[in-house]
Amino acid sequence: MIKTEPHRRYWLMELLAYWEGRLTANHLQQFFGLSRQQASKDINQYLQDNPGQFYYCSSRKGHLPSPAFKPGFISGDVTEYLNWMSGQRAHTMPVEPGYRLEHAILTPPPRNVSPRVIRPLVHALRHHYRLEVDYGAVSKPDRDGRIIVPIRFVNTGRRWHLRAWCEKARGYRDFVLSRFHGEPTPEGPQRSPLPDDSAWSTTLTLILKPDPRLSPEQQAALAYDYDMTNGELHLPTRAALAQYLLNEMQVSVKMLDGNPAAQQLILANHDEAKKWLF
Predict the structure, then answer these.
(1) pTM: predicted TM-score of the whole model, two decimal places
(2) What is the pLDDT of residues 70-100, one digit of tens each?
(3) String of DSSP letters for 233-263
């Protein structure tokens, strides 16, 4: 059984090598405060305990995942990497069996996201590169090539996507990670400064209320449930994320559910928000 600290280091080694495509002693020095000698020793210990997982590439001055690499300390789900990278969820110590409480966790199926997609996206984000990508949207399943400039990863609650400048659309678009095909191709540094992303820089407050078709008692229950003030729930958000927040709150703005108990909440300031919704 591997002790907790080595387990954490092995976890990070696999996470970086798998999703970023390269592991160096400097990574361990940076994240664990190790000396270079200790960091190299830890990598060598991992290789001894897990033969065939990484190989050293002199031209890239680091360890790369081998073609036969199999996750042993990571899940292989891109959400794990993105949650860690964004600081949303730290890799914590396991809970002692005697301290656990009975519980259940709903686990949606993971999206099909390959490291071959993530690695070029991460590199482009860090170095402000343009990428040629093969992307297929649900609204347009016939895939087409386009040039994008990745800006940031965004967690919408249900999934992660990439916000990027799309040269074809001449605007900012959200790209679902699991809908990229093949491996994005670097097209060099971005050519000029990008225009302002107004949907991202604009702050919008969504005002939600109980569906007025509900009984006064039902409306009062919802107001208590969401700790509303004067029967309203105010949710500040970036305009670019407003639709995702409404989806997460299960608030439909296109068609009211015939059953008000199913609808529960409505968007009270639809006229103000509609220009940002899709």
Answers:
(1) 0.84
(2) 999 999 999 999 988 887 655 554 555 675 6
(3) EEEEEEGGGHHHHHHHTT--SSS--SSHHHH
